[in-house]
Amino acid sequence: MVVVEVVRFVAHPMYHKRVRRTKKYHAHTENPLNLGDKVRLVETAPISRTKRFTVKEVMKK
Question: How many domains does the chain have?
Answer without folding.
Answer: 1
